[in-house]
Amino acid sequence: MAFSFPFRLSRAGRLRGLALLLALLAAACNSGPAGLGGDRDGSVPPPVTPSFRAALPNSFADVVDLVTPAVVNIAATGSVDRTLVEMGPSPFPPGSPLDEFFERFREQYAEDPDEPVQRTSQGSGFLIDPSGLIVTNFHVIAGAPNIVVTLHDGFELPARIVGTDPRTDLALLRVETSRTLPYLEFGDSDDVRVGDWVIAIGNPFGLGGTVTAGIVSARGRDIAAGPYDAYLQIDAAINRGSSGGPTFDASGRVVGINSAIFSPSGGNIGIGFAIPSNLAAPVVAELSRRGFVERGWLGVRIQDVSTEIAERRGLPDTTGAVVVEVEPGSPAARAGLRAGDVVRRFEGQPVETIRQLTRMVGDTAIGREVRLDVWRGGRRLSLDVTIGAVPAPEEQARGPRRPPAG
């Protein structure tokens, strides 16, 4: 096709005309189909589609071969507190994992109230040191004076408790042997993303050395079991007896500890929970050093800020923690904290929920002075408080609070 003009253009004019023609052609090409909408310039944005094809693993066999020898089975035998059987209605929220576990437990042991209540708990664990240190769940070995560990090759060893931490449902055991023991190291659970592959190994229903695989379904799950809830939710099958076993990423790093399941029937329905390795590792290290975990303490009962409370107190939003009660003689009492105060900041960090404040206090070194920003009587004020240690009787009275998977 040729273009002719009835008059002569200068060289500069011809160049300007050519530029205009090219611009019109480019606009026509980028305008997109009519009626589909687009950006302001008329272009249609591309669909949200990955530009790569995710590689599915052909097999986890190589990883499993490497890590399985360090995974152990745990049998713990002991008596169960009769008061759990004789209690009235479940104290936990209806339908919660804890409520379901409570009811199943009571039905199992309430048949013959005159007989001593004995239990044998089957669980899992894994070696983290060649000297024989084993990580498992607290609820697997709680109240059990007799603990037997079975290694991957079937060799049995008696185990003793090095330390326990009920608040995170973790326990550390030790076995003594002249054998060379394989062991695992913790990976970085912060690197784990929703959708990543994970592998769980455990002892479900006494079937030792069972391997399951799935993906991370969610992160930071709170299942109302305690202030340190920040579970990885996984769909790799976890059943009774899997508790305390490791959760691996596809590279064979321990990124979690199988700890709980959510299930109306008590069996796997694809909703399992693992303690993240970054939460477990420092706890295990302190259990190894001291046998217990020392946490900071304020000495208050708190609740979340509801919309009604925020409106009544003139707060701009519902963030913070309402002080319901201050324990006499506690660090909070000595600092002048009162019932009705709303804690809004802890050492300059915003306090969103009571769970967050509990963790902030618990993670603070004993004896450290911190500043609390509180809302009282319609105005802000700051209080300096010296963090104390959790009294031993309170810590011991808490006991296990998590729904066991085994």
Account of the protein in words:
- With 406 residues, the chain is an alpha+beta fold.
- It has 3 domains: 61-175, Thrombin, subunit H (Beta Barrel); 189-278, Trypsin-like serine proteases (Thrombin, subunit H, Beta Barrel), CATH 2.40.10.10; 296-389, Pdz3 Domain (Roll).
- Helix content is 22%, strand content 30%.
- A 6-stranded antiparallel barrel has the order 1-2-3-6-5-4.
Regarding CATH, which class of the largest domain? Mainly Beta
CATH T-level fold name of the largest domain: Thrombin, subunit H
Broad structural category: alpha+beta
- Outline the low-pLDDT stretches: 1-7, 31-37, 393-406
As a whole number of angstroms, the C-alpha radius of gyration is 30 Å
Total of helices: 10
* Widest beta sheet: strand line-up: 1-2-3-6-5-4
Shape: globular
What does the main sheet amount to? 6 strands, antiparallel, barrel
| CATH architecture label of the largest domain | Beta Barrel
Q: How many domain regions? A: 3
Mean of residue pLDDT values: 80
